Amino acid sequence: MMSQAKQGYMIFLWSHAMYSDEAHAKITKYCNFSAPTMSDECEEAGDEAGSEVGNIDIYNIYAPICLDSGKDKPVHILDSVEVFDPCASSYVDTYLNAKEVQKALHAKPTKWSACSGVLSWQDSPSTV
Asked: How far apart are CA 39 and CA 80, in angstroms?
């Protein structure tokens, strides 16, 4: 189901020049964000826009992305606080999964990952 949140996200990306006016015109023409399902034309328009946008951090569209597939890299201290490390979250995963860290935090030994879906927040509004 398309939603107002998805519509807002697509408008946000378009208004920040993340995909073309042509792709946006197709989304505007073919996508009914209130409909329970997407039409084939809408899905194709969304795919086109998605391929133009590429691989981005949806929470910070201008930030570099982490291309490092090695999640087991050792945690290291950055040389400068001004340096943004797009792989920082993978370092956090490695750190929080270390047995000695979980023991020090008195946490039940488990495989930790951000946004794992283990906790389910039920009172979140559908739009903000």
From this structure: 49
DSSP assignment of 9-55, as one string? HHHHHHHTTSS-HHHHHHHHHH--TTSSS--HHHHHHHHHHHHHH-S
**Dihedral-angle region of residue 70 (phi above 0 means left; psi in -120 to 50 means alpha; beta otherwise):** beta
How many other β-carbons are positioned within 10 Å of the β-carbon of residue 28? 13
Q: Look at residue 76 and tell me whether its pLDDT is greater than 80.
A: no
Q: Taking the chain, what is the end-to-end CA distance rounded to the nearest angstrom?
A: 18
Cα(95)–Cα(76) distance, integer angstroms: 11
Query: Which of 94, 124, 117, 99 minimizes the C-alpha distance to 109?
Result: 99
Q: What is the mean pLDDT of residues 24-38?
A: 91
Residue 14 CB neighbour total at 10 angstroms: 20
